[in-house]
Amino acid sequence: MMVVILIAGLAAGLVFANLDGDPHRAAQSEAKRLAGALEHAAALAQWRSETLGVSAEGRGYRFWRRDANDRWVPVADDDLLAPRLLPGDLTITPVNYAGAPVAPDAILPFRASGRNEPYTLRLLLPGGSVTLYADPLNRVGYAMTTDAGAGK
């Protein structure tokens, strides 16, 4: 019985190590996590009747809210919207908002009305990228590109 448990544990460890070491899987997993957080932020902005936003630069991303003085302050009361550092060699950059290019340090807003502009973010990894895109109905999807020229 102990031998079977030991073998099962070793097999599970190897599977986990192989999944964790694949940058494409890590990027896809991170894209799925971020897509869920973006949809949550858009829904929360409507539900709470407040303006939220997201910024993405370099090694991580962060969610923001507009305060009473119309300044952006970090979201601190929602674990799903906590600042996130990306694993491994992943980096993130905003690509566009409402069809126009945006600055790397831009905060993309989610309006309380729920009527948001489409936007695109890109996760970059060695040998590929994952593009996250949101439509005006706040649905977020993603597509992976694995060629060497992706993200340039």
Which helices and strands appear, and what pairs or packs with what?
Layout: H1 2-21, H2 23-48, E1 52-57, E2 60-66, E3 72-74, E4 84-85, E5 91-97, E6 100-101, E7 107-110, E8 119-125, E9 128-134, E10 140-145
Antiparallel strand pairs: 1-2, 1-7, 2-3, 2-4, 5-6, 5-8, 8-9, 9-10
Features:
minor pseudopilin epsh fold, 5-stranded antiparallel beta sheet, alpha+beta, 152 residues
Question: How would you describe the overall organization of this protein?
Answer:
By secondary structure, this protein is of the alpha+beta class. Helix content is 30%, strand content 34%. It has a single domain, classed as minor pseudopilin epsh domain (minor pseudopilin epsh fold), CATH 3.55.40.10. The chain is built from 2 helices and 10 strands. Strands 1, 2, 3, 4 and 7 form a 5-stranded antiparallel β-sheet that branches. The longest helix has 26 residues, at 23-48. 24% of the residues are buried. The model has no long low-confidence stretch (mean pLDDT 89).
